[in-house]
Automatic annotation (TrEMBL):
UniProtKB keywords: 2Fe-2S, Electron transport, Iron, Iron-sulfur, Metal-binding, Transport
Organism name: Streptomyces tubbatahanensis
Name assigned to this protein: Bacterioferritin-associated ferredoxin
PANTHER family noted in UniProt: BACTERIOFERRITIN-ASSOCIATED FERREDOXIN
Family: Belongs to the Bfd family.
Composition bias type Low complexity, residue spans: 65-79
Domain BFD-like [2Fe-2S]-binding: 2-50
Region (Disordered): 61-103
Highest taxon, organism lineage: Bacteria
Length: 103
């Protein structure tokens, strides 16, 4: 059954993301985009996630790393104006320089 009709995300996909460590609707959204358009599915996603154990939280409580592999290729620091973004986002244009005229 579809949970998010905007992006065609099913209950099974939400459960798979939850089993992989997504514990909140926001984490589900970052993995699948569910809940990021009209938002009508967020409560349904919350219901599927329930109040059960969160694998990431449980790992942290055991002193283990919560994430085993990086989930994002985004740089740790934002690129400077005019530089290319390695994540594929368009570069922010460099600020216009004022024209200097001879006096």
């Amino acid at each position: 059954m579809y949970v998010c009709s905007c992006f065609g995300i099913t209950e099974e996909q939400v459960r798979e993301h939850a089993a992989a460590g997504a514990c909140t609707p926001r984490q589900i959204a970052s993995e699948s985009k569910a809940g990021t358009d009209c938002g009508s599915c967020v409560r349904r996603i919350q219901g599927i996630l329930g109040r059960g154990a969160c694998p990431r939280r449980a790992a942290l409580e055991r002193g283990e790393p919560a994430l085993t592999a990086p989930t994002s290729t985004a740089p740790t620091a934002a690129p400077r104006r005019g530089e290319a973004d390695p994540a594929g986002f368009p570069a922010e244009p460099a600020p216009a320089q004022p024209l200097r005229t001879a006096a």
